[in-house]
């Protein structure tokens, strides 16, 4: 059985916790920030959990995490 390759773009963007949760950063941070409140922008600094079918797809892209 050959080794499975890790998807490098996903590896850079996604963190897997010790309990197996998949965490991703929020979007909406690059431009057009003047219409958003400071509270909204600070809330986007946190990592958010990925759930459902998308989490299964990400786990397939990161076979050794």
Please provide a written account of the structure.
This protein has helices spanning 8-13, 38-43, 52-61, and strands at 15-16, 22-25, 47-50. With 65 residues, the protein is α+β, with helices and mostly antiparallel strands. The protein has a single domain (8-61), classed as Factor Xa Inhibitor, CATH 4.10.410. It has a 3-stranded antiparallel β-sheet. A hairpin with a 5-residue loop joins strand 1 and strand 2 (22-25). The protein is elongated. The model has no long low-confidence stretch (mean pLDDT 93).
Keywords:
alpha+beta, 3 strands, three-stranded antiparallel β-sheet, 65 residues, Factor Xa Inhibitor, single chain, 3 helices
Largest sheet: 3 strands, antiparallel
Question: What does the average pLDDT come to?
Answer: 93
Whole-number total of structural domains: 1
Q: From N to C, what is the helix and strand string?
A: HEEHEH
Query: What's the count of strands?
Result: 3
Low-confidence blocks of residues: none
Label the structural class.
Answer: alpha+beta
Determine the fraction of residues in helical runs and give it as a percent range: 25-40%
Shape, principal axes of CA atoms: elongated
User: Number of DSSP helices?
Assistant: 3
- Order of strands in the sheet with most strands: 1-2-3
First CA to last CA: what distance?
19 Å
Beta-strand residue fraction: 15-25%
For this structure, the CATH topology is Factor Xa Inhibitor
User: Over all CA atoms, what is the radius of gyration?
Assistant: 15 Å
| CATH arch. level architecture | Irregular
CATH class division: Few Secondary Structures
